[in-house]
């Protein structure tokens, strides 16, 4: 994914759309935030020794910046073969980075519980703007959860506030423990204002999963970071076969 002219949203899930877009605009671009703005949150939740999956990597430099900050293994995937070929060539001498052409809705290439952490900066949002948005988003989240290890973190960076994102993240079988952070959009009025709140402090949510009145719905000056931890499955108790039945009186 990258910047450029506006396009019809129905094409956002199509490989041909992104191949054409990257062919026309090969310059690197990071959606929403650069690593410098996200690093306090990323380093809080994701260890530098983790095996990380970057979904919808596009031609962003966030993975490069993370490697420069000490991260050791990042697997980057995108639906566009054009951008994957370009990134493989660009980072051929960076062994910490791997690039693969994959559709995040169908990642059978990876076994279950392959990754310690998954970072999503705009991928979910892209699917939500495309055709069959609810189905595509649900398929992606199912695959994300499948390839993530128990106790692992799925970090979703998005423009979507809790009112429009929590219903997806709290869907059936998701079983996430979720912490929410907000970051001012670079160049926005909120970014220019001083604040005593530290971005590494998660926000408290209302019972319905929404934010308090100090945050307007769909605030264009904010980006939201959902830190979703995959809960380990609860194993049923196994009866002790060696235990003798109580003696009858």
UniProtKB/TrEMBL annotation:
Q: Give residue ranges for domain Methyltransferase type.
A: 53-155
CDD domains xref list: AdoMet_MTases
List, alphabetically, the Gene3D superfamilies matched. Answer: Vaccinia Virus protein VP39
InterPro entries linked: Lys/N-term_MeTrsfase_sf (IPR051419), Methyltransf_11 (IPR013216), SAM-dependent_MTases_sf (IPR029063)
- What is the protein's species of origin? Marchantia polymorpha (Common liverwort)
Q: Which family does it belong to?
A: Belongs to the methyltransferase superfamily.
Recorded protein name is Methyltransferase type 11 domain-containing protein
| One GO BP | methylation
One Pfam family, short name please? Answer: Methyltransf_11
The entry lists its GO molecular-function terms as: S-adenosylmethionine-dependent methyltransferase activity
Q: Which superkingdom does the taxonomy of this entry point to? A: Eukaryota
Which UniProt key words apply to this protein? Methyltransferase, Transferase
